[in-house]
């Protein structure tokens, strides 16, 4: 009698469980909503409950994955999307599927989660840091520069025309984050256009060369300066 009761309860619980059938709407996109460029990403590994579920790779003859990928008939569970960023960092994004709906999954190849210590802009104290940024290619050669200055609790920026303007910590944080990304640009690259970033701080010079054609830090910086009326 007891065994029958337990069996009845098991059947009742099983019948009441939610039958989940969901979809994944995967978007390969920038962390910056204004950046609409195409990213060359060639593999996404999907794990379900820590076991490999599916490996997404380009179809035959395609150089990389489509910007938008859809997967249907997804059952409930914990899913992890693993891919390599443009910085060579392994990124893991987790999605818990607990409802029959479409889950939008954002894959950000330009995301960087590592934080470098002792950044020039980050540790500036009653001093200044100069950044020279250049772009060189077959048909162009451009160069510009700026200075960040700290005096006590105040931060200032000086651009090429010599004008000095006080900035808040939000703007200062933008430059710290920018330097953090620039310093993690992979060294390999065969692009014909080279972007060069030179940091001058405390009598020392650091040069980072971007020959990957994967980043747009120079144009992003110029757009930021213009948007915030810092030029």
What is the string of helix and strand elements?
Answer: HEEEEEEEEEEEHEEH
SS summary, helix count: 3
Strand content: 35-45%
Biggest beta sheet summary: 6 strands, antiparallel
Helix coverage percent of residues? 10-25%
Low-confidence stretches: 12-16
| Rounded Rg | 24 Å
Number of DSSP E strands: 13
Shape label: elongated
Strand order of the largest sheet: 11-10-9-8-12-13
Average pLDDT for all residues? 90
Span between termini: 84 Å
Class per helix and strand makeup: alpha+beta
Concise account of the structure shown:
The chain has helices spanning 2-16, 169-182, 217-227, and strands at 22-28, 44-48, 51-56, 68-74, 77-84, 90-97, 102-107, 128-136, 141-151, 154-159, 164-167, 194-201, 204-210. The strands form 3 sheets. It has a 6-stranded antiparallel beta sheet. A 4-stranded antiparallel beta sheet has the order 3-2-5-6, with no helix packed on it. Helix content is 17%, strand content 40%.
């Amino acid at each position: 009698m007891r065994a029958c009761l337990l069996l009845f309860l098991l059947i009742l619980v099983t019948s009441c469980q939610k039958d989940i059938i969901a979809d994944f709407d995967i978007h390969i996109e920038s962390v910056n909503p204004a950046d609409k460029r195409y990213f060359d990403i060639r593999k996404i590994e999907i794990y379900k409950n820590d076991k490999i579920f599916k490996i997404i790779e380009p179809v035959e003859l395609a150089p990389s994955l489509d910007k938008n990928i859809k997967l249907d008939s997804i059952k409930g569970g914990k899913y992890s999307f693993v891919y390599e960023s443009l910085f060579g960092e392994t990124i893991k994004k987790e999605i818990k599927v607990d409802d029959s709906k479409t889950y939008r999954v954002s894959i950000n190849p330009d995301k960087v989660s590592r934080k470098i210590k002792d950044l020039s802009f980050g540790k500036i104290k009653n001093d200044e840091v100069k950044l020279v940024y250049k772009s060189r290619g077959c048909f162009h050669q451009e160069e510009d520069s700026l200075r960040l200055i700290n005096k006590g609790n105040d931060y200032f920026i000086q651009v090429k025309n010599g004008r000095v303007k006080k900035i808040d910590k939000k703007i200062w944080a933008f430059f710290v984050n920018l330097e953090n990304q620039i310093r993690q640009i992979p060294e390999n690259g065969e692009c014909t256009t080279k972007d060069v970033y030179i940091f001058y701080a405390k009598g020392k010079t650091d040069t980072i060369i971007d020959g990957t054609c994967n980043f747009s830090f120079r144009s992003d910086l110029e757009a930021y300066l213009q948007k915030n009326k810092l030029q």
